[in-house]
Structure formats: C-alpha cells, structure tokens
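Q: What would this chain look like folded?
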Amino acid sequence: MGIIVLLAVNVRLEPSWAWFFGAVVVGFATVIDWSTQRLSPRKTTVRTRALTGLMSGLSLAVIFVLGDIIYILVALSIMLGTIAVVSIVESRMTRTSSF
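A: My prediction, written as structure tokens:
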C-alpha cells in the first residue's frame, strides 16, 4: 500500500541517499518496539504495533521505490542483522535464566 501511495502522490525522492537514510531511521521504530518486547517484560499495544507497522511499511516502500539494489540489499541486511542480534541475545538470556 505504501508503494501505491508514493506513486499516486508522485513524491520526488531526491536526493535518494537522504530518503534512504530517513527511511532506515523511521523504520527503526518497529525494530525498537519488537526488540524491547522480546528482551524485556514490556508488552506492546495494538496502537503501537499499528503505528510502527505503518512507519515501517512506508519506509520499505520508499526504499523499494528508490529502486537502487544497493539500498534494498543494505535495508534487508540491516533487518536480518537485527533479527540475528535479538535472537542471540534472547537465546543467551533464556539459557542464563534456566540455570
């Protein structure tokens, strides 16, 4: 839906590096929400998930509309790296608390 909105509004994504950087920063709201929920007793709300999901979706739409394969690969690498780090930390926390 984010891609359709961006194309319908016909936003000029110039300079592309600034839009990419902004999209990554805005998309990190979802990462922060997810990782703090996984690694702490904090529970997220439906409103928070909807807001961070919307922000993340629009951020990914910006990155894909930019159409630069390097931007796409960097964004996917950041997402993969974040999931890996949180999974490792969560695994170590679980292992430590079970002893």
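The radius of gyration is 16 Å.
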